[in-house]
Amino acid sequence: MDFEVNYDVAVVGGGIAGVAAALQAARSGKKTVLVEKTILLGGLATTGLVYIYLPLCDGNGRQVIFGISEELIRRSIQYGPGDIPENWQQGKNAREEERFRCIFSPASFMLALDEAVQEAGIDVWFDTLVCGAEVNGNRLTGAVVENESGRGVIHAKRFVDASGSSILARRAGVPCLDANNYLSIWSLEYRQDADPEGRNLSRGVTMCFGGAWANGETSMTDQELARVGLTREILRSGPYRGISGEKVSEFVLHTRNCLREHYRTNYESGKYDRKSNFPLKLPAMPQFRKIYCIKGEYVLKDNEHATFFEDSIGLLADWRKAGFVWEIPYRTLYPENRLGGLLAAGRCSAASGDAWEVTRVIPSAAMTGQVAGLAASLSIEKGVEPPDLDVRLLQSELRKLGFPIHLADVGL
Ligand SMILES: Cc1cc2nc3c(=O)[nH]c(=O)nc-3n(C[C@H](O)[C@H](O)[C@H](O)COP(=O)(O)OP(=O)(O)OC[C@H]3O[C@@H](n4cnc5c(N)ncnc54)[C@H](O)[C@@H]3O)c2cc1C
Fold first, then answer.
1. Which end of the chain is least crowded, N or C, by CB within 10 Å?
2. Which residues, in sequence order, are CB contacts of 352 under 8 Å at separation 6+?
3. 289 within ligand 1 shell (Cβ under 6 A)
4. CA 287 / ligand 1 centre spacing (Å)
5. Ligand 1 center from residue 155 Cα (angstroms)
6. Quick one: what percent of the chain has pLDDT higher than 70?
7. Would the pLDDT of 205 be above 90?
8. Are residues 386 and 352 in the same domain?
């Protein structure tokens, strides 16, 4: 090894979950490092050009997500366009139809995230890939990293895997769950007549939803599909599972082939030409929705919205269905095999099917990230492993941070 360093808390992945975890750990007084393989913070939300901060409210005018998730929605528009509905800005519950969400410019949000982590005194290691784990007995003791300085080990008392793909957990031998993905691409484009009421960022610049091709459903004709190397059968069989180099390349190239087809079609129709409509920025990470999450001591399942969990650590809103609110058990944040030293956050926390749709999005990633950062800190202070942390202590500290813990806390 070329280097070895020691921290209280090491967070793997500088996406929304990782930033939230690192902010909370650092604000709890822990020496914290945030390791990110790119040179940008925000993960899929920014580098991946996802630009909608989904709702912190239940769709019936009731806020259910608080804490760093709320702080980050406000920071997301600090250096750029985007609006939070007026009622929510004043901290009052909004009219039902206006959900507490906003559209942001990914670049603006990246600048704000940089500022947040620097203010908190977090050591950020950009351009550093976590590629292995050091396990002693039933404890994770190190993350093996590689960067231009060589290969080294980050030792820490606690690790938070916020990599979006549970890389550290998998390298440490933790069983994980995966899922199918469907083909879609979101990118940033110039369009002369960009709809000012739509997903417009500034004059002419708009967010482009190139299209989603789930279960073979597409508006593209067989001929158009053939032109981009796809068939209805490929779409139907849901091949986008697995993250080998080959699989990632297949997925990414298919999405970009579809985007080229989108522009060819626009130009052929005569509605636009290459000067009035063209791509400005493509996502710099694969837009997989689900990769691997840990197999937690509890795996949140379909239809468990409105379910009481004794060990709930907060609430999540369902972005698709008004009135669907989920309690999130603490047991989804650590592995079923109770490996010491490790917590998971964001899309790495344990969920399946429909429940994963709820836990994987931006406000949810911030919420579970903050809880993982707090649980990491408290478990160090109490000298216990994360699975043995007194959940009532965690709940009481979360309440001090403004978290509702159970549905009843928000009148549900
Ligand atoms: C097409 C698409 C559209 C979406 N639309 C929305 C939407 O409109 N609104 C919404 O709220 N959510 C949306 N989502 C989901 C949401 O963007 C993500 O699920 C969420 O941002 C995930 O956050 P995360 O922090 O858990 O993971 P990620 O964003 O994946 O962050 C993980 C970070 O870890 C880093 N990393 C990974 N491996 C390593 C390693 N080995 N070493 C070091 N660093 C590593 C990555 O570079 C990344 O920065 C969408 C997702 C997709 C794919």
1. N
2. 177, 179, 299, 300, 301, 302
3. yes
4. 8
5. 25
6. 89
7. no
8. yes
Number of domains forming the structure of the chain: 2
Distance between CA atoms of 327 and 368, rounded to whole angstroms? Answer: 11
| Separation CA 170–CA 154 (nearest Å) | 17
Of the candidates 253, 281, 309, which is a domain's last residue?
281
Q: pLDDT (tens digit, 9 = 90+) per residue, 19-64?
A: 999 999 999 999 999 999 999 999 999 999 988 999 999 998 899 9
Residue 231 pLDDT grade (very low, low, confident, very high; cuts 50, 70, 90):
confident
Q: Is 162 in the pocket of ligand 1 (CB under 6 A)?
A: yes
Q: Kindly state if the Cβ of 286 falls inside 6 Å of ligand 1.
A: no
Integer Cα distance of 375 and 277 in angstroms = 48
What is the residue with the minimal CA distance to atom 1 of ligand 1?
287
Residues 369, 330: Cα–Cα separation, whole Å: 12
Residues 108 and 53 sit within 8 Å (Cβ to Cβ): no
In a domain, 286, yes or no: no
The band of 6, judged by pLDDT with boundaries at 50, 70 and 90, is: very high
Residue spans of alpha helices (H) in 228-297 = 232-236, 245-269
Residues 172 and 67 in one domain: yes
Domain that holds residue 340: 3-178+291-410
